[in-house]
Amino acid sequence: MRSQTFYRAETDYVFAGDNAKPRWQGTMLTDHIKPAAVRAGIGRIGWHTLRHTYSTLLHEFGAPLAVQKELLRHSDIQTTMNVYTQAVSATKRQAAEKVQSILFGKKGA
């Protein structure tokens, strides 16, 4: 994709406008991010969707809650824990399999 843009340097912005500066966030979302999400089969997304995804990935990668809170710029850690962060399906499945193994003596725990 980088080969298809005029601004190819590592230091250039991904969504640079004609002046090599970042485009307005509404333009980036409407012209680039939303169409890319539809093409990828993700469906409709917005900036808030990306914030929730970022929070969930931080959690999945083991970032401490205080770090997640700071990176998301939340004033209350409860917002980070109870609103933004979700468990990833593979992790939920692994946890359920461990419980099943303990309860029913299945191998693989």
Topology at a glance:
Elements: H1 25-39, H2 47-60, H3 65-72, H4 77-84, H5 89-104
Helix pairs in contact: 3-4
Description:
Helix 3 (65-72) packs across helix 4. 56% of the residues lie in helices and 0% in strands. The relative contact order is 0.07. It is built from 5 helices and no strands. It is elongated. It folds into 2 domains: 1-45, no CATH class; 46-109, no CATH class. The protein has 109 residues and is mainly alpha-helical. It has helices at 25-39, 47-60, 65-72, 77-84, 89-104.
Q: How much of the sequence is in beta strands?
A: under 5%
Number of strands: 0
Question: Which structural category fits the helices and strands?
Answer: mainly alpha
Helical segment count: 5
The low-confidence parts are none
CA radius of gyration? 19 Å
